[in-house]
Specification:
Elements: H1 8-20, E1 27-28, E2 44-49, E3 54-58, E4 64-65, H2 71-82, H3 84-87, H4 118-125, H5 133-148, E5 153-154, H6 156-165, H7 167-178, H8 186-197, E6 199-201, H9 203-214, H10 229-242, H11 248-254, E7 259-261, E8 266-271, E9 275-280, E10 283-284, H12 291-303
Antiparallel strand pairs: 1-10, 2-3, 2-9, 4-6, 5-6, 7-8, 8-9
Helix pairs in contact: 1-12, 2-10, 4-7, 4-8, 5-8, 6-8, 7-8
Bound molecules: glutamine (GLN).
Keywords: Acetylation, Hydrolase
Family: Belongs to the glutaminase family.
Catalytic activity: L-glutamine + H2O = L-glutamate + NH4(+)
């Protein structure tokens, strides 16, 4: 392979990662043993524009499980299939200020507070269409693949580990069964949620998925309209208020873009009409967000004036 020059944007991203790589704060998630095996040094940033240009630096093709970054997409699926009115009977749009795995429902409406916390995501899992469990699994994988623009697969070991140790998620699901928010069969609904968290993606995939949200639901690689522009608006609104756990307010203040993070160290951010960003770095801060991922997003959005409320 001969000399390949980087584009100015890729050179910028490369330099940005070099500066941030020295930050070794945070710890890799270990709530399931499999996640603790992630290489803490992995670091990637990928930017994809709505016209499908891809700019990447670092470990952009290292696979990891999508975890909670899946949640806005699953909310999008529910909206697309059932419409807002039906979906809002199952989940609200208010931030909780509590951790993602909190065991609380909104006692006025008996709903999970929003689709970005586990309770809300599990309620969405029940909405997957299919005659039987295998069909619902296939529906799920097909939907995420259409967002990524390529056929995705699941990490069998992480899935097994999620399923073996997900007792808190079981508690959440059974509480919702008790209150009639889900109807069951509860173990099958949970199984779909565990599978969803265990889908393997790369930073490149996540950036394509984020860019597809930026492109109002039209996949920037395949051209397929995956969900409608109106549903994208609703997904992005909930990401803006609830996407970064109990850091959502500070994130909006600093970065100013709708975003979602997950415990394996991925973060996506979306600048509507323009681009999607994905970062990957497994060390997490105390609320569960990627330390270096946040740093990359802060600097990138500041350097290019991408904050939603900046005068451009
Ligand atoms: N599988 C994880 C859980 O449900 C996902 C959580 C996350 O990424 N925040 O606990």
């Amino acid at each position: 392979v001969g000399f390949q020059s980087r584009s100015p944007v890729e050179q910028y991203l490369h330099d940005l990662l070099a500066q941030i790589a020295t930050n070794t704060e945070g710890t890799v998630a270990d709530y399931i043993p499999e996640l603790a095996k992630a290489n803490p040094e992995h670091l990637a940033v990928v930017v994809v524009t709505v016209d499908g240009k891809v700019y990447s630096a670092g470990d952009a093709d290292v696979p990891f499980t999508i975890q909670s970054v899946s949640k806005p997409f699953m909310f999008g699926y529910a909206l697309q299939e059932y419409g807002l009115e039906t979906v809002l009977k199952k989940v609200g749009v208010e931030p909780t200020g509590d951790p993602f795995n909190s065991i609380v429902l909104d006692d006025v409406n008996n709903r999970p507070f929003n689709p970005m916390v586990n309770a809300g995501a599990i309620a969405m899992s029940e909405l997957l269409r299919g005659e039987n469990h295998a069909e619902r699994e296939a529906t799920q994988m097909d939907f995420f693949s259409r967002f990524a623009g390529r056929k995705l697969t699941m990490d069998q070991t992480v899935y097994q580990s999620e399923s073996d140790t997900g007792h808190r998620n079981r508690a959440i699901a059974y509480m919702m069964l008790n209150s009639g928010m889900i109807n069951g069969p509860t173990e099958e609904v949970l199984d779909l949620y565990f599978r969803q968290c265990s889908i393997l993606v790369t930073a490149r995939d996540l950036a394509v998925m984020a860019a597809t949200l930026a492109a109002h639901g039209r996949n920037v690689i395949t051209g397929e309209q995956v969900i409608s522009p109106g549903n994208v608006r609703d997904v992005l609104s909930v990401m803006a208020t609830c996407g970064m756990y109990d850091y959502a307010g500070q994130w909006m203040f600093d970065v100013g873009l709708p975003a979602k993070s997950g415990v394996s160290g991925g973060i996506i951010a979306v600048l509507p009409g323009q681009l999607g960003i994905a970062v990957y770095s497994p060390r997490l801060d105390s609320v569960g967000n990627s330390v270096r991922g946040i740093e990359v997003c802060k600097r990138f959005t500041r350097d290019f004036s991408l904050h939603a409320y900046v005068d451009r």
